Amino acid sequence: MDWVAEGHGCVVEMKRMMTQKTEFNLSLSTLTEFIEGDVQGQIIRITDTRLLLLPQGCRGIRGTEMEGFAVSPDDLKDVYL
After folding, report:
1. Cα–Cα distance between 24 and 38 in angstroms, integer?
2. What angle (nearest 5°) sits at the alpha carbon of residue 9, between those of residues 26 and 14?
3. Distance (Å) of CA 35 to CA 7, 19, 64
4. pLDDT tier at 33 (50, 70, 90 boundaries)?
5. Cα–Cα distance between 14 and 18 in angstroms, integer?
6. Residue 78 DSSP symbol
7. Coil/strand/helix, residue 51
8. Are 59 and 79 in contact (CB under 8 A)?
9. By C-alpha distance, which of 3, 75, 70, 4 is closest to 39?
10. Which residues contact 36 (CB under 8 A, 6 or more apart)?
11. How confident is the model at residue 30 (pLDDT cuts 50, 70, 90)?
12. Which of the four pLDDT bands, split at 50, 70 and 90, describes residue 81?
């Protein structure tokens, strides 16, 4: 989580933890509180077992129709570089 606080994105593999329901839910709660609450970042599910953790100023956009070259500047007005 230090990486995200320092402005780096990272991918987290959750497969092994998914079998322990209590630990998995606690981990998601902790990640959500820190990434979305404290750091003001974003958590994105990229596969069934992997999460992408983005720092503040980064924003995930859904689908290829929303690629950067296809998006109008107004769609990205709340993204900071």
Report:
1. 20
2. 35
3. 11, 23, 25
4. very high
5. 6
6. T
7. strand
8. yes
9. 4
10. 42, 43
11. very high
12. very low
Question: Distance (Å, rounded) from C-alpha 7 to C-alpha 54?
Answer: 8
- Here the tokens at position 10 are 């990272």
78 vs 81: CA distance, rounded Å: 10
Closest CA to 8 of 79, 62, 56, 47: 56
Cα radius of gyration rounded to whole Å, the chain: 14
Matching residue, tokens 């839910």: 25
What gap in Å lies between CA 36 and CA 53, rounded to an integer?
9
Q: Where are the alpha helices (DSSP H) in the chain?
A: 2-5, 21-31
